[in-house]
Amino acid sequence: MLIIGIAGGTGSGKTTVVNNILSQLSSEEVIVISQDNYYRDSAHLPFDQRVAINFDHPRSIDFELLTQHISALKNGKSIEQPIYSFVTHSRTNEIILTQPKKVIIVEGILVLTHPPLRELFDIKLFVYTDSDERLIRRIRRDIQERGRDLEEVLLRYQKTLKPMHEQFIEPSKNYADIIIPNDRKKNNVAIEVLSSVIQNKINFFENEK
């Protein structure tokens, strides 16, 4: 099994990188685990307290469960991923039953900040994008997909997103094996190289059977 960790700031283009990788591989061989499903459950808190949580700090992530799940998949066991709602700021009652596959991609802004999780990755990527571009993408996503208004998005950016990025996320690129820049031409080259490495690993697994 090949386990790949993909990190980068919010709005850096991690999802695009993942989708481009998936487009070159068989969906039967790859699964994607999103850090976003592993925010700690805050359903026990009043809604106004949930809204105030710093979701860009590593302590907001249930890394213990995420690491446990990746280890289970690595050992050939299925897992039940939680599903997190960014509207209610709590976990839903639904789960995603996930079976192990040849390649596991774990993506999220903080996945390279947690040593036990990081040690499970065979390949570590960091998607780099300048702060202005990331802010624009964050505004569009939070307004269109998460029902937030512009004032709330900008307030979060100033109070938590920017300082947390500088303190935790940006430094985590030092753990990356490959840094993918926000340049379409260079981005495509990096993805093609990575996809080739993944496919070679898959072929190796097949030949070992």
From TrEMBL:
Gene3D superfamilies: P-loop containing nucleotide triphosphate hydrolases (3.40.50.300)
UniProt key word Nucleotide-binding: yes
Family membership: Belongs to the uridine kinase family.
One GO location term (cellular component): cytoplasm
GO molecular function annotation: ATP binding; cytidine kinase activity; uridine kinase activity
Organism listed in the record: Candidatus Ornithobacterium hominis
Reaction catalysed by this enzyme: cytidine + ATP = CMP + ADP + H(+); uridine + ATP = UMP + ADP + H(+)
Name of encoding gene: udk
Pathway(s) of this molecule: Pyrimidine metabolism; UMP biosynthesis via salvage pathway; UMP from uridine: step 1/1; Pyrimidine metabolism; CTP biosynthesis via salvage pathway; CTP from cytidine: step 1/3
Protein name as catalogued: Uridine kinase
Record InterPro entries: P-loop_NTPase (IPR027417), PRK/URK (IPR006083), Uridine_kinase-like (IPR000764)
NCBIfam families membership: PRK05480.1, udk
Matches recorded under Pfam families: PRK (PF00485)
Domain Phosphoribulokinase/uridine kinase: 3-183
UniProtKB keywords: ATP-binding, Cytoplasm, Kinase, Nucleotide-binding, Transferase
